[in-house]
Amino acid sequence: PIDMVRKRNDYARIGVHEMWLIDPEIPQSLIARIPEGGSHLVDVADVDRDDELRSPYLPGFGVRLGDLVER
Question: What is this structure's pTM?
């Protein structure tokens, strides 16, 4: 959707280096990061319910996607 394109561009412009887009209904997450030397967020991983969300910006942190979205 155009809204997500706009948000990605806005977030990158203000210095956000990584974003997680989580769809709790599926559940699935898309991780986008600005590559070294880059200026735009690019997709780097798709995460499913049983996979862990991890980030180089949060060393030692990891959370299973299913744990975030299960009620």
Answer: 0.83
